[in-house]
């Protein structure tokens, strides 16, 4: 496989080589890189929820959800997530990625037009690639382009696919307008709420709920349990008939082992904490505003603060400088973001302290001024 070395050299020359850097246990760096938006991943109640489920059901779920991989705990989590977001039902997957593949491959057929936002998450893009319908990618947040495609289509069925909070820029999809054109054109709106659950909407119920679209029959939500909910896994929140269809036809549900019990228990506990302390959702947005101010960018409508630096080399150098100064930040480069928009991605956490923000201020001031353009 000599060609791998050639491809590796091309990646390195473009500044796009990636390395895995294991986290050190007890790392004192301030975390602005993870998706632990509500700061729940080490919350005692969440750890206890994981341990109790682990002890009760075992380390693994032991099989497909359709065979031995469904525990009572999986079903409770599904009911609780549906109730929380206002959906008719929920179906838990081993990951959000698998949930997105499931929705796109099973709700679309050869007679289906799939309209996807240019900034849709990679797992939605891969779902589009695996689905058998015609895929049309529209410019980011361009509702008129969506409407024109839906109106002029030859296909009897159509899906419109978008993130609600976009993962790289942290901006919001125009869900109300999208739903209006979806409804008018008898289509279905598929919304990935991975970065919105726990952050947007009353008590973190998500942007679909905030937009007044909870429980609408033509809206299908996908989400992950790995960000605000501090665990692992994915979920589809939709009408009962969608759930039933997915259980029977989604290959990433049927041929995948059910989510591990510990992850289910952790997600249930995180949801209980969020319900008891709904102010965590507002706190994460407030802290994102603080981080944006310190970085000299506009306050985002989500937990994601994006500081665009341009070249991948510059972004990598800035991220390394932050790391060396004790602040761990994300670094996004192509293909995760368009060429020329490599960036630092700072994610806010509800439990960032004033002392941490002071340190972050000093580090960002030094790094953003000193890293050469
Ligand atoms: N959708 C979006 C918008 C995401 O950011 C992610 C995770 N990065 C996923 C889906 C996939 O979720 P999971 O990590 O649970 O597979």
From TrEMBL:
<protein>
    <recommendedName>
        <fullName>8-amino-7-oxononanoate synthase</fullName>
        <ecNumber>2.3.1.47</ecNumber>
    </recommendedName>
</protein>
<keyword id="KW-0808">Transferase</keyword>
<keyword id="KW-0663">Pyridoxal phosphate</keyword>
<dbReference type="InterPro" id="IPR001917">
    <property type="entry name" value="Aminotrans_II_pyridoxalP_BS"/>
</dbReference>
<dbReference type="InterPro" id="IPR015424">
    <property type="entry name" value="PyrdxlP-dep_Trfase"/>
</dbReference>
<keyword id="KW-0012">Acyltransferase</keyword>
<comment type="pathway">
    <text>Cofactor biosynthesis; biotin biosynthesis.</text>
</comment>
<dbReference type="InterPro" id="IPR015422">
    <property type="entry name" value="PyrdxlP-dep_Trfase_small"/>
</dbReference>
<feature type="domain" description="Aminotransferase class I/classII large">
    <location>
        <begin position="29"/>
        <end position="360"/>
    </location>
</feature>
<keyword id="KW-0093">Biotin biosynthesis</keyword>
<dbReference type="Pfam" id="PF00155">
    <property type="entry name" value="Aminotran_1_2"/>
</dbReference>
<comment type="subunit">
    <text>Homodimer.</text>
</comment>
<comment type="similarity">
    <text>Belongs to the class-II pyridoxal-phosphate-dependent aminotransferase family. BioF subfamily.</text>
</comment>
<dbReference type="InterPro" id="IPR050087">
    <property type="entry name" value="AON_synthase_class-II"/>
</dbReference>
<dbReference type="InterPro" id="IPR015421">
    <property type="entry name" value="PyrdxlP-dep_Trfase_major"/>
</dbReference>
<dbReference type="InterPro" id="IPR004839">
    <property type="entry name" value="Aminotransferase_I/II_large"/>
</dbReference>
């Amino acid at each position: 496989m000599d060609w791998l070395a050639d491809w590796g050299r091309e990646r390195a020359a473009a500044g796009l080589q990636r390395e895995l850097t294991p986290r050190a246990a007890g790392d004192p760096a301030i975390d602005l890189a993870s998706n632990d938006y509500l700061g729940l991943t080490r919350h005692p109640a969440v750890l206890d929820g994981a341990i109790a489920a682990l002890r009760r059901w075992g380390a693994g779920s032991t099989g497909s959800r359709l065979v031995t991989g469904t525990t009572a705990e999986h079903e409770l989590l599904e009911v609780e997530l549906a109730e929380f977001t206002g959906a008719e039902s929920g179906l838990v997957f081993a990951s959000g990625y698998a949930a997105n593949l499931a929705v796109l491959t099973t709700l679309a057929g050869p007679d289906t037009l799939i309209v996807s936002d240019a900034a849709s998450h990679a797992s939605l893009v891969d779902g589009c690639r695996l689905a058998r319908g015609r895929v049309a990618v529209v410019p980011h947040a361009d509702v008129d382009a969506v409407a024109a495609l839906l109106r002029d289509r030859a296909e009897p069925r159509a899906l419109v696919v978008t993130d609600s909070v976009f993962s790289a820029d942290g901006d919001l999809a125009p869900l109300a307008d999208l739903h209006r054109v979806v409804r008018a054109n008898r289509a279905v709106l598929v919304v990935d709420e991975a970065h919105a659950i726990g952050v947007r909407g009353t008590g973190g119920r998500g942007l679909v709920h905030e937009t007044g679209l909870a429980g609408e029959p033509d809206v299908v939500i996908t989400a992950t349990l790995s960000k605000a909910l501090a665990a692992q896994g994915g979920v589809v929140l939709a009408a009962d008939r969608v759930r039933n269809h997915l259980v029977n036809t989604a290959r990433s549900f049927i041929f995948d082992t059910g989510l591990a019990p510990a992850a289910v228990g952790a997600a249930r506990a995180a949801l209980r904490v969020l319900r008891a302390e709904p102010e965590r959702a507002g706190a994460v947005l407030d802290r994102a505003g603080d981080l944006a101010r310190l970085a000299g960018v506009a306050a985002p409508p989500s937990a994601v603060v994006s500081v665009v630096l341009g070249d991948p080399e510059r972004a990598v150098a800035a991220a390394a400088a932050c790391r060396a100064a004790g602040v761990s930040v994300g670094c996004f480069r192509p293909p995760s973001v368009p060429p020329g928009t490599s960036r630092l991605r700072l994610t806010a956490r509800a439990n960032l302290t004033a002392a941490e923000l002071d340190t972050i201020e000093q580090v960002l001031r030094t790094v953003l001024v000193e890293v050469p353009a």
